Structures
1.
Amino acid sequence: MELKQIFEVQRNFDRRVGWNRYEKCNTPEEIVDFMKHFVIVMVEELGEISRIRKEFERDKKSFEIRSLRHELVDIFVYLMQGCVALNMDLEEEYLRKLRHNVERFSSQHSQQREQSI
């Protein structure tokens, strides 16, 4: 399944269960208000990952990889919702960012290599 299809599947699910508040972001105020929610849920999910790590390292509890996968998928779902709220094509923006990073870091890497010679 392609990324655009995954977005559409999620959007249809969110509409059915009433979680599509992000689709109603038409003004800067509505976008900022949604982003407040977005930040909170993202921090909560990252907190779940941190809790799993802490319980493993500090408390010596075992964990299953699927727990981490579950939390990462939750983050992905919220990321998709944030992208829709911003009317953002994630694939296009990612490729633009990748090109920028390739240019930026390839030249930095080359400069560092030349300086070390």
2.
Amino acid sequence: MSNPNLTYSTGHGTGYGNATLLKNPELCTLETCDLSMASFMYLPTVPGNAIYAAIFGMYIVAQLFLGMKHKTWGYMVAMVTGLILEVIGYVGRILLHSSPFNNNDFLIYLATLTIAPALLSASVSSILPS
């Protein structure tokens, strides 16, 4: 650990530092708390997640165009919904870079990037011959 003055948690209700921050990690900042108090022990990178968000954003435009052109409505809706959730999930990871202690940003990331692949898979399986 680089700064011994930071509040640190062992994850089992013990640790050292500011007792208020130990009881309520949502008050933590990168200057006051160690990443052990965050949802995960690293900071997501902004450039990497921005690239993924941009790629999935471009896929949304392409899927809307192709879905309307070929009139594949069910496939298009499932695919675009999954892609929108992917973009939201990567934006949530970008938000976690500056505030890793924010549980709302963590839930945005976790829920959307868990559900999105299921929608993408469902859209592909909907066009496979039965």
